[in-house]
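Thread: "does anyone have the structure for this chain?"

Original post by V.I.:
We have the sequence but no experimental structure in hand. Need at least a predicted one for the grant figures.
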Amino acid sequence: MDNVVVVGMGMIDTLGNSVSECFDNLISEQYKEPTSFETKHEHMQHLKAFYAQRTDLNHPDYIRKPLYNSLSYASKMALHAIEEATEHLDLDVKTTA
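Reply from O.Q.:
Generated one for you, tokens below.
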């Protein structure tokens, strides 16, 4: 088995688009649990599901705009979280990928 090293954190949640924003909103006195919905995915029907905020996400400079625009919103959210995680390290993805 290969070793895994966690090098940073990135997050998108109903509470915000960054780790610090989510934490700050969670401990805020104005915090209110978002409205849940039922998912049709059979393996997740027993879980609460919440819509993520549809806000501006970081568009990575190394991905051409036409390609980025063709991605699903879930893929854009994943890229946003990865960008945030690498920013914690000042890691340049272009030179290490």
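V.I.: this helps a lot. The chain is about 35% helix and 0% strand.
O.Q.: and The helical segments are 19-27, 65-70, 73-87, 93-96.
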